[in-house]
Amino acid sequence: MLPETVARQIIADHQRRPRHTGPLDGVPGVTVDNPGCGDQVTVWADVQAGRVARVQFSGKGCAISQSSASLMTVALTGKSVEEARALAEQFQAMVMGETEPDPQLGELQALSGVSRLHARRKCALLPWQALEQTLG
Residue 106 CB: number of other CB atoms within 10 A? Predict the structure, then answer.
């Protein structure tokens, strides 16, 4: 588990300087909304030969949804579709408070504190829901 100060720094960094943003040419995106808070995220995943060659996002919303999307794009690039789905399940379990943060999640552990904030769980999971639909 990451120290709280490190977690906050990671979240703030990814909110201020999101990675892998903007649409991918020729790749359909999936948009999901959180009507409760107004967050919206679109995710594009370029899957080639069973691997996530590139994944990008765009969106608007709170620091949690935007940093979660940015962290997701970094974590999943280059993974097989099976690895991406397994990581998504592991992340969801952590956010829902079902499991403790696993070091294999890397910087995604920064969002483990969301498990204590019921209303923010949806924010953290929003980009992952779009990814799930993108991967089919």
Answer: 14
pLDDT at residue 136 tops 90 = no
pTM, to two decimals: 0.96
The DSSP letter of residue 97 is: T
* Domains of the chain, earliest start first: 4-135 (3.90.1010.10)
- Supply the mean pLDDT for the chain: 96
Residues in the chain: 136
- Residues 6+ away with beta carbon under 8 Å from 106: 75
67: burial class by Cβ within 10 Å (0-12, 13-18, 19+)? Answer: buried
Q: How many CA atoms lie within 13 A of 125 on its CB side?
A: 19
